[in-house]
Amino acid sequence: MRNLQREPGVLLALLAVIALVLVFIVYPQVRVVVTPGTAYVDFLSAGSWVKPFLNSLQVMALSTTTAVLIGFVFAYAMVYTDMRWKPLFRLIGILPLLSPPFVVAASYILLFGPRGVITYGVFGQTISIFGLGGIWGVQTIAFFPFAYQLIADVLSRSDARMEQAARNLGAGPWSVFRTVTLPLSRPGLGAAILTTAIYVVEDFGNPALVGGQFTVLPTQAYGLISGFGDLPSAAAVSTILLSLALALYLAKIRLDGGQSFVTVSGRASSMPRPPVPAWLSWACFALCAALCGMILLVYGSLVVSAFTLTFPVNTSFTTSHFEYVFSGVNGVALRNTLVYGLSAAAFSSLFALLAAWLVQRGAWSGRRVLDFLLIMPAAVPGLFFGIGYATAFNEAWLDWLNRGVLIIISMIFWNIPVGYQAAVAGLRQIDRTMDEAATSLGASSLRGFRDVLLPMLGGSLRVGFVTTFVRAVTTLSVVIFLFTPGTTVATIRIFQLVNDLDWGGATAFTVIDIGMAIVALSVLAVLARGRIALGAARA
């Protein structure tokens, strides 16, 4: 990229990117942090946050442990064993990524609640599933796919020659696993632990539905605003939550840039992995089948409930729930979800690509600061982000601003890190001489970006678009403080219907919401000839 003073177009683009980042990423977060002011002292000294804080740590430790453990076994089974039904298991395993996380909690109540299909219908027991145990169970199912994806990626890229060498030297399967496979999986394992812990600690929907009296930081912040209108205290709780998530995220960054675990060299290797014992393949198959059976039970009960009159009491077939969902305010919510999701995905993916090009190909001072600001939303809990927008833009002089536009903007900038990191990875794989050749022939830097780099970054663009769309149509925490009756979205209506015990409407909404995510993935997979990937997602 040439000197900025010689290319006013690039300079204007850079200034526009910086201005948007400052207004829509930095300013809302600063407003949340400074809103309590002197109330910080009173709130912290009162100690009402201590119990939710300890509860959050407890949930984080338990859910992260089980989610990562299951994710590791699932990933190992997919990469190392020759068990049957792998494609089916992979497909079922990513279902939780395509739905709002709190959907698992809703299904959990249907299946295992006081009048649940299994607990009461099969065993005749009326038990309480609300509290720590309920949160632990649903978060394990909801978040294990994130751990699975990260660990499977590392395991599949490890060099099989190291394990074959160990086996040739006389090491047994367990010894190879303990001394070679497990150490090589440490980068993926560490990233999976920290990433899952971030998602768990900032999760709002599941604790809100099955937490009962067990309050965690996100539900405390929501309760302070919705129940008491106490914004300063809610902002203080959110700041504590942000500090916790930020500490985990910084640990993840440090881990990513720490020790070297290089296992992929320039030498091509077609050596197969050493075979695992037959009993181990069968054990992995049994675990994967049980896990996928549970996932199918969770999502299958939602589908059955959507097509029955009053599941499980009256299982007569009906489409009335879908007629209800497509009518009135529910139809508006569905339309808003689709419009907001597509708009946010289109703008976010293109903006992330432009920002990545300015940061990676530029030679101006301050690039590292902008780079940090662009990935910062990845560490910001959705609830904190939503409170930030509600605090910063809920001003009288902004009454002209349509709330739907504000929701789209929040979705754009909350999802920027996914598209940005995908674009940075893509740019790092393209030699600078490619675009420098264009500029040396007289083209401007912007034209070189448009004509040379942009066509080569189609994969990064697709990852940013698809992931942003899926996150936008499944997020609850970001939009729960921003919607109005005319700008409500599907996740808000699902949450409201579940709280109203309208299971038919809630499950029909959920089926359509998941369907939209699957259709978006399928269409783009066809356009990309099967080369489609879903980045790390959360809601």
Question: In words, what does this structure look like?
Answer:
The protein contains 25 helices and two strands. By secondary structure, it is mostly helical. The radius of gyration is 24 Å and the shape is globular. 48% of the residues are buried.
Q: Spell the H/E element sequence.
A: HHHHHHHHHHHHHHEEHHHHHHHHHHH
Q: Provide the helix percentage.
A: over 70%
Mean pLDDT: 84
Largest sheet: 2 strands, antiparallel
Short note summarizing the structure:
The chain is mostly helical and 539 residues long. It has helices spanning 8-34, 39-46, 50-80, 86-93, 102-112, 117-122, 132-157, 160-168, 173-184, 186-202, 205-210, 217-228, 231-256, 278-306, 320-325, 328-361, 367-375, 382-393, 403-414, 416-428, 432-440, 445-456, 458-474, 490-499, 503-527, and strands at 308-310, 314-317.
